[in-house]
Automatic annotation (TrEMBL):
<feature type="domain" description="Aldehyde dehydrogenase">
    <location>
        <begin position="19"/>
        <end position="475"/>
    </location>
</feature>
<keyword id="KW-0560">Oxidoreductase</keyword>
<dbReference type="InterPro" id="IPR016161">
    <property type="entry name" value="Ald_DH/histidinol_DH"/>
</dbReference>
<dbReference type="InterPro" id="IPR017628">
    <property type="entry name" value="OHmuconic_semiald_DH"/>
</dbReference>
<feature type="active site">
    <location>
        <position position="247"/>
    </location>
</feature>
<dbReference type="InterPro" id="IPR016163">
    <property type="entry name" value="Ald_DH_C"/>
</dbReference>
<dbReference type="InterPro" id="IPR016160">
    <property type="entry name" value="Ald_DH_CS_CYS"/>
</dbReference>
<dbReference type="InterPro" id="IPR016162">
    <property type="entry name" value="Ald_DH_N"/>
</dbReference>
<protein>
    <submittedName>
        <fullName>5-carboxymethyl-2-hydroxymuconate semialdehyde dehydrogenase</fullName>
    </submittedName>
</protein>
<dbReference type="InterPro" id="IPR015590">
    <property type="entry name" value="Aldehyde_DH_dom"/>
</dbReference>
<comment type="similarity">
    <text>Belongs to the aldehyde dehydrogenase family.</text>
</comment>
<dbReference type="InterPro" id="IPR029510">
    <property type="entry name" value="Ald_DH_CS_GLU"/>
</dbReference>
<dbReference type="GO" id="GO:0016620">
    <property type="term" value="F:oxidoreductase activity, acting on the aldehyde or oxo group of donors, NAD or NADP as acceptor"/>
</dbReference>
<keyword id="KW-0520">NAD</keyword>
<dbReference type="Pfam" id="PF00171">
    <property type="entry name" value="Aldedh"/>
</dbReference>
Amino acid sequence: MPDPVTHFIGGVPVALGPTFAACDPVTGREVRRVHEADRSVVDRAVAAARAALPGWAALPVAERAAWTRRLGDAIEERFEDLVAAEIADTGKSITQTRTLDIPRGAANFRAFAEIAAQRPESAFHLKDALSYTVRRPLGVVAVIVPWNLPFLLATWKLGPCLVAGNTVVAKPSEHTPGSLAVLAEIAASIGLPPGVLNVVNGFGTGSTGQFLVEHPGVDAVTFTGESRTGSAIMKAVADRVKPVSFELGGKNAGLVFADADLEAAVEGSVRSVFTNGGQVCLCTERLYVERPVFGEFVERLAEGARGLAFGRPQDESTVMMPMISAEHRDKVLSYYALAKDEGATIHAGGGTPRFGDERDGGYYVEPTVLTGLPNGSRVNREEIFGPVCHVAPFDSEAEAVGLANDSEYGLAATVWTSSLNRAHRVARSLEAGLVWVNTWYLRDLRTPFGGVRLSGIGREGGTHSLDFYSEPTTITIKLEAGHG
Ligand code: NAD
Ligand code: 6OD
């Protein structure tokens, strides 16, 4: 990967625009510089995508699927480079990066190749007519993604978007340009037609992201990130009524019933609260536990939090990772301070770890378990996006469902119970796009993924993604009767 990191436009690296620093979250030190795309660079990327559109859109879906399959294969060939790029930007543990982030990149391209190539078409025979539907790509699509799962989330959009016949200008987060820079090299190395995939780097508001979504040559925007940013993008595209697909924030609830396998509920909750340093939109930040097991659950969860290994990213036993930036670390710590001010009891964490080495300059915070705050407190209402959860007791199923649904968000929820009836009853009462029972973040890429309320608009996954990335045209042909 070049330093400074370049844009990728029309199949070639483009080193234009001022540069900004990318820092290693493990140490806080600058590791490389990145070019920032101004309006003229964004113009150039959109023009390249537009020029490539007719040829790409005209390919049979089987050929586009062959290209995205090739991307999946080439990702495996560059696996360790992608792992290194992702770790350099995020400080993720090598074990997670090797088992989740990068493999899902390859799987995203392959899965959507299969889903698109095998998608059945339907026709309706009317009395004297035949009615059928063709799907056309949206055109040039802006793909804007966040820093928490940079490669997984970018490829989750790129796979279906490209296979549906669109061309793309993608913008990674300013914090995590590395893995998409490697993907651009991969696209060039396999000879993906120039302009089909373009990547521009830069910031959001007043910078590359805003220039991209506002650009008249961009036909649609697919975005994953904060709800507030989704709202700003929606305003920016309102005049042109561009289609938007939004995967936004969460304040996800977990319900633990007294009849649950407590060990599984504790282990599952440790995973759902602390994975990726709590920086996954699906992470649980509010736990509600039935009163008879509340005390034991809190104790065991706190013990689990204290036991999470803070090694270096390259150490296979490491679990905890730093926050992405000093700003985000300070935001998370401000919620720890707020919880203390509001009278919370802190059962684990609540501060920053000390290492006695260069990691003390990094962006680490302690995994934290809180109790004692009302559901209306800011800690229980606002997305923190760090390794922290609040645990509260409940006395009835109805109360638990009411507490879980009392949120402006509605992305994901977990339910821990051994009762099959309760599992079905509670799962369907939860106002969230995704509900896991006795597990968390178990995924089938064909199922709809997304949230309600502030958590997003639309669904991704399987044919739901393909539906967003294409527009149907219904064709009805009158047939003349009596000539057979
Ligand atoms: P963010 O909204 O700050 O940034 C996301 C991306 O949008 C970045 O590339 C950023 O540069 C760009 N951006 C920012 N302002 C913009 C603007 N005005 N116009 C165009 N682009 C703009 O989010 P983040 O801090 O990078 O990520 C964390 C957030 O993402 C959390 O809220 C988390 O819940 C959410 N998230 C949601 C999902 C999901 O699937 N629902 C997945 C991952 C992350
Ligand atoms: O697994 C996925 O497909 C997905 N979109 C995960 C989102 C995680 C949010 O941080």
